[in-house]
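Hello support,

Our group uses your service weekly, and this is the first time we've seen a run hang past the timeout. The protein is Nicotinamidase. I'm not sure whether the cause is the sequence or the server load. Input pasted verbatim:
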Amino acid sequence: MTSRLNPGVQDLLLVVDVQNDFCAGGALAVPGGDEVVAKVNRLASAFAHVLLTQDWHPPGHSSFASQHPGHRPFDTIQLPYGAQTLWPDHCVQGSRGAELHPELAIAHAELILRKGYRPEVDSYSAFYENDRRTPTGLAGYLRERGLRRLFLAGLATDYCVHYSALDGRREGFEVVVLLDACRGLDTQGSLDKALRAMRAAGVEIRADAA
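Update from on-call engineer: The timeout came from a worker crash unrelated to the input. Re-ran successfully.
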């Protein structure tokens, strides 16, 4: 699987949100989410540079449906920065659900980037909060390290992987999404829409992870 990938010294594997709450039995389980763990571990062994993201919400986060009486998970409401999908409470700071999947084995990962910790704004992308203006600092980190091409794997294809890929292109990086090492929620056609948007932005979509 990894032999044909042949990443170079300016390539980085970006592992998105492989956390307990997004896997089987979690508060916001992505169908087949556990299936990416072994794939990601094998991929990571081929990369000298690996970075992990971790959803990290405070209790009572504004994206939680529980904070909006009369609304349910997966409803869409308007917040000051625009449309926001409401979610079950998930990846709460310090909880088991927020922990990285216990079988994720990437000891050489160089950075864990936490996102979604501002109570008033959600953060799908590894690069920007959902207001589309507030940066996480990842672009500067990658540039200073001399990393130019990003390979994305993880959860969920149509949300955090999708927005991270788009913002990677927005920041001028080459971006490859390894589709076999991702899984999506696919709510109301969101997966097909995300794939079209990524391709339109110049993201390379690889059906397998090789």
